[in-house]
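Re: your question about histidine kinase

S., sorry for the slow reply, the queue was backed up all week. Below is exactly what I fed in.
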Amino acid sequence: MGRGKLRIYLGAAPGVGKTYAMLSEAHRRVERGTDCVVALVEHHGRARTEVMLRGLEQVPRREVEYRGAVFTELDLDAVLARRPRVALVDELAHTNVPGLRNAKRWQDVEELLAAGIDVVSTVNIQHLESLGDVVESITGVRQQETVPDEVVRRADQIELVDMSPQALRRRMAHGNIYQPDKVDAALSNYFRPGNLTALRELALLWVADRADEYLQQYRSEHRVSKIWGSRERIVVGLTGGPEGRTLIRRAARLAEKGAGGEVLAVYIARSDGLTSASPKELAVQRTLVEDLGGTFHHVLGEDIPAALLDFARGVNATQIVLGSSRRKTWQYVFGPGVGATVARESGSDLDVHIVTHEEVAKGRGLPVARGARLGRSRSVWGWFVGLGGPVLLTLLLNTVHLGLANDVLFYLALTVAAALLGGLYPALASAAVGSLLLNWFFTPPVNRITIADPRNILALAIFVGVALSVASVVDVAARRTHQAARLRAESEILSFLAGDVLRGETSLETLLERVRETFAMESAALLEREGDLAPWTCAGRAGSGPPVDRPEDADVDMPVGDHMALALTGRVLPAEDRRVLAAFAAQAAVVLDRRRLREEADRASALAEGNRIRTALLAAVSHDLRTPLAGIKAAVTSLRSDDVAWSEEDQAELLEGIEEGADRLDHLVGNLLDMSRLQTGTVTPLIREIDVDEVAPMALGGVPEGSAELDIPETLPMVAVDAGLLERAMANLVENAVKYSPDGRTVLVAASALADRVEVRVVDRGPGVPDEAKDRIFEPFQRYGDAPRGAGVGLGLAVARGFAEAMGGTLNAEDTPGGGLTMVLTLRAVGSSGSSGETVPTHPLATAERQAAR
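Result:
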C-alpha cells in the first residue's frame, strides 16, 4: 500500500473554524461511503463543534498518567490497528505528554501516512516553525508548540480557513470560542484587531507562496513558456549604470500597487563586451534591491534583449522596467537599442515600462566589434558587399571608364569594406569575385581569362594580397575583442561568486541556484560518493528539472576531484563556458566542506560542553554529595553504638544532623537532576494560567521562617507558566538570596505588572555582584566569591534561568539600590500572550516537581 495523503486546514488564529471545517469534510466523505474515523478532535467545549462529532466513529483516546495526573492523547496503535481509509487528527503542532512513542503529534501523523492512511488535520499559522520570530514580534510571545514548515509544505492539499478580524471578535464576544470569564481578557490582548489582521496576512501570504510553488512546478513539468499573470512580478533590467537606482525604486513602487508584488533585478553580463558596469555600483544596486524586499540575479547572455526576455518568461514575470537609452543620437546607427528591441519582441503577455532618468542621451561607449562573427546583421551585410558589391561595381565601371589602376583601387576599397563589415570570409569572397571580374572585363584581352600584360598580373596579385591582409587583420581584431570581453564578463561573475563565498553568506542551495541562473539551466545538483564503486548521492540541488542520479545522466557534468561532480540539466553547455562552470564547481565543494566543518564544530562544542558538565558532576558527587552522606553515616553509627549512653538532648541533636544532611543531600540531587534535564533538552513545560500568589508561598518552604517576606498584589494579572517549574525557579532564587543576606536582613519577594509581562523580583541586601560577573553566576557549577564547598554545587541559579526560559520568560540580575542583588524573573501575562490563545488542561505538575526537588 502506498503512502497516505495529508490534507491540512490552515487558520490564522483560534476560532476561525478549522475543526468545524474538518468535521464537515468528514461528514461529506462518510456520505460518499468512505471509511472515515475521528482519531482525535479537540472541541474545547464549543457546542457547535461538539455537535459535529455526532454520527462519526471515534477511536477511544489513550489515557496517560504523568506526575500523578491522567491525560488523554491520540491512541496511535489503536488507529493503526483499525486501519481506516481516512483519520481526523486535530492540532498538528500539539506536544504529546512525555512517555508516548513520539514527542509531537505531527510525528504520529507521519506514521499514519506511512501506513497508507489518509489524514485530515488542522494547524494555525503561528505554529509554523519559520514564523516564530514574526509571530513573537506581533504578539510578544515566542510559540512553544511548533511544527516544521516542511511537514506542512509536503501536504497534498492545504485549505485556508479564513475569517475577518471583526467577524472573529464577534464570535469571541458571543461566547463561541472561550468561556465568558475569559472573553474580555482575550479581546483586549491576543484577539486585538491589529494582531488578528497581521496573523491573517501571514496566513494569506504563506498560502499564496505555496500556490506559487505549485504553479512553478506545473509550468516546469508541462514546459509552459507563456506568461500567466497570476501575480505581479516585475523584472528590472540593470546595466550597471547610475540610472539603476531610479529603475529599482520605480519597480518597487509598481510592486506595492499590487498585492504580493515581487521585484527581480537582473544584470546580464554579455560576452561581446557591450557592458561597462562598475562592480561597486552593482554592489550598491544589489543592496538597494534586497533592502526593498526584492532579489538580485546575475545572468550570462550573448544577446541582451533575448536573455532578458528569456529570464522574464522563466520567472513568469508580468512587467519589465527598463531605462531610457543613454546613447546619443548618432549612436542609434548601430541598432534600435535594448529597450526598443525588448518592447518589440515582448508580445502581449509582458508590459514594458521605459523609465526616464537623469542619464538619458548623455552617451555610452559602444564597441565596434560585437562578437567572434561580428553579429548576424553585420555578417549579412558583409556577404552582400563581398558578393553583390563587385557585380554592381562592374556594371558601374563599364559605363564610366577610369582606367585599370583606378578600377583595381575601387575593387580593393570594396574588399576592405566587406572585411570591415563581415570579417575574413566575406573579404575573401569579395577578393575572389573582384579579381575574376577585373580579369574578365577590364584586363586585356577583355572577355577572356588570360592576361596579356605581365604588369596587370602584378596588379591583380597585389590586389588579392592587400585584400587578404586587411581581412585577416579585421578578423583577428574581432576575435581578440570577443575574447577580452568574454573574459571580462567571466571575471565579473567570478568576483561576485568569490565575494559571497568568502563572506560566508552563500549556502550550497543558493550557490547552486546561482549556477542554474547564470547558465540558464533547468536544474543544478552537487553529487558525491564515498568510493569509485559506491553509489552517487545528492548533497544539494536547485531548480525544478528532472533529478539526476549519476553525472553521466546530466546534460553537463563538471568533475570536482575524484568523488564529486556538479551536474546540470537543461541544455548542452558550450565548451568556452566550462571554465566558469569549473570555478562554480570548486566553490560548491568549498561551501559543502565548510558546512560540514561547521556541523562538526557544533557537535564538538556540544561534546566538549557535555564533558565539562560530566566532569563537574563527578567533582560534585566526589565531594559535595559525599559530605552530607558522611555526616549522616557518622550520626547513625553514633546512635547505634552500645558503648555510649546518649542523652535525649544528644540524640535529638544527632537526629537533627541526620535530617539536615538528608535535606541537603536531597537538595543537591534535585539540582543535579534538574540541570541534567536542561542539558539534555527534556524539560517540557505544560503551560496553564495561575496566579503568582499561588506559587510564591510554596517557594519559601525551603528557607528559615522569617528570612523572607512576600509583597504580591491581589490585582496582579495571571501568568501563563508551568506551576512546578515556576515554584522550583523561585525557590532556588529565594534560597540563594537568603544564603548571601546578612543576619537580621530579610529577603523581599515582590511582583508587579509591566505592559504584557509580570516581573517577580527577589531582593537581598548581601554583598552584591559586579557587572562583569552577573552573567557568569548563571553558568552551571559557579559559586560567586569565596563561598565554601558546603554552600552547594553552584547549580541553583543555572536551573532557575533554564526553567524560566523553558516557560518563555527571562531571568536577569540587577543591583539593589543601596547595596545587594536583585533577581528579576519576567513572565508572560495571560491574555496578551499565549502560544495560540488556548491553554493546556490543569495538571498537578507543581506537586510532582516539589516532590522531586525537596
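The first strand starts at residue 6 and ends at 11. The chain has 24 helices and 24 strands.

Happy to talk it through on Thursday.
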